[in-house]
Amino acid sequence: MSMKYSEMVMAKLVTSILLLETMVTSGFRIGPDSLSVDYYVFSCAFVEPIVRNIVNEALQNDPKLAAGLIRMHFHDCFIQGCDGSILIDSTKDNTAEKDSPGNLSLRGYEVIDRIKEELEAQCPGVVSCADIVAMAARDAVFFAGGPSYDIPKGRKDGTRSKIEDTINLPFPTFNASELIRVFGQRGFTPREIVALSGAHTLGVARCASFKNRLSPADPTLDSEFATSLSKTCSAGDQAEQPFDATEDIFDNLYFEALTRNNGLLTSDQTLYSHAETKNFVDAYAFNQYLFFFDFQQAMVKMGLLDVKQGSNGQVRANCRKVN
Ligand code: HEM
Ligand SMILES: *[C@@H]1O[C@H](CO)[C@@H](O)[C@H](O)[C@H]1NC(C)=O
Ligand SMILES: CC(=O)N[C@H]1CO[C@H](CO)[C@@H](O)[C@@H]1O
Q1: Hey, which of 30, 90, 167, 232 has its CA 20 to 30 A from 98?
Q2: Is the pLDDT of residue 25 over 80?
Q3: CB atoms within 10 A of CB 126
Q4: Residues annotated catalytic, as ranges
């Protein structure tokens, strides 16, 4: 789909206004500590190209890292807010979020380390790990073929990372009502849940995450697809299955799969069973541009969850440990 220049300018303008609106409705105020798209313009002018180049290089070596980086941002934000807590390593006295079983399959930590190292060399002590995760996820979306968009920056890093907090992540066995309840507690609408779930256009799940649908047989699972999932699972709980036909490409095939009962997790297919979410699945399956548009807005909003500003947080020198 090609757009005229004037349409592109218009779309850019609209997304800028919506970004401002998202920030205002999320309770952000203008001040020295407030988040902004230009937060590092004087303190670390080249932060964006530095992050983008390292993400690009990493994805060229391993396209699967795009999925890892996007999922990392989600897990970071949903537990304790977007504060880089997902990056902290366990110590003798503390088992961190990243060591919880459900979250072990996260990947891309080395990419964040590399970005941090480069940024510490260029502008020491300035760019938070939470912002690095947010920017890396945003750039991963773009390099995988998704939309390009600006995000506000200025998040500070947290100091708490505890395995027990990860109980707050949604389970893959959740039905739409449960998703609407837990995401609703964080201020997300059903439409935003569907848009965010579209991140599953990238990557894979392990058999352990979807075998609940095989026995007893889930009636909302296409029978041919069920056979192929059983085959995957014959290799064990760790065997991987792509969410859609193009696991490294950010497109709308995930939604198209849901319309054919080819969704992978219970929490995916359920979006096509519930009155409040089904129409959005159809709309995104039909119109990829609409999906991209809604996805970027929902990602900006997710990136503002319980953000620490100013002296409420720190800028970690090493993303793996608190200062
Ligand atoms: C709606 C609730 C959600 C549930 C229940 C859920 C659950 C899961 C599960 C179980 C996996 C597979 C883990 C494994 O078996 O290794 C997964 C993978 C993934 N999730 Fe979600 N997720 C949800 C929402 C999101 C959101 C909001 C995002 C990002 C915006 C996201 C991004 C991803 C990505 C990219 C992968 C693939 C990871 C990879 O291949 O490395 N998910 N998710
Ligand atoms: C969704 O799950 C909850 C909790 O297990 C259950 O009470 C509810 O009946 C389910 N809703 C539907 C529509 O299946
Ligand atoms: C989604 C998921 O599997 N979350 C798990 C993360 O780890 C905690 C701690 O072990 C589990 O309780 C969650 O179920």
Answers
A1: 232
A2: no
A3: 16
A4: 75
Rounded-to-integer distance, Cα 63 and Cα 66, Å: 6
- Same domain? 238 vs 258: yes
Residues, the chain, total? 323
Residue nearest to atom 3 of ligand 3 (CA): 102
276 lines ligand 2 (CB under 6 A): no
Claim to verify: residue 217 and residue 285 sit in the same structural domain: yes
Q: pLDDT confidence of 124, banded at 50, 70, 90?
A: very high
Q: Residues with beta carbon inside 6 Å of ligand 1?
A: 67-68, 70-71, 74, 105, 107, 170-172, 174, 179, 196-197, 199-200, 202-206, 209, 265, 267
pTM: 0.92
Instruction: Transcribe 284-302 into DSSP letters.
Output: HHH-HHHHHHHHHHHHHHH
Q: Which ligand is nearest to the CA of 169?
A: 3
The reply to whether 47 and 130 lie within a common domain is: yes
CATH of the domain at 54: 1.10.520.10
- What secondary structure does DSSP assign to 5-25, as a single string? HHHHHHHHHHHHHHHHHHHHH
What pLDDT score does 103 carry?
55
Residue 288 inside a domain? The answer is yes
Q: Is the dihedral of CA 53, 110, 149, 285 positive or negative?
A: positive
Do residues 152 and 301 make contact, with C-beta atoms less than 8 angstroms apart?
Answer: no
Q: Single out the residue of 101, 98, 105 nearest to residue 129, CA to CA.
A: 98
- The domain in which residue 74 lies consists of 3-168+299-312
Closest ligand (CA of 176): 2
**CA gap 257, 49 in Å, rounded:** 35
* pLDDT at 19 (0 to 100): 72
Do 77 and 209 lie in one domain? The reply is: no
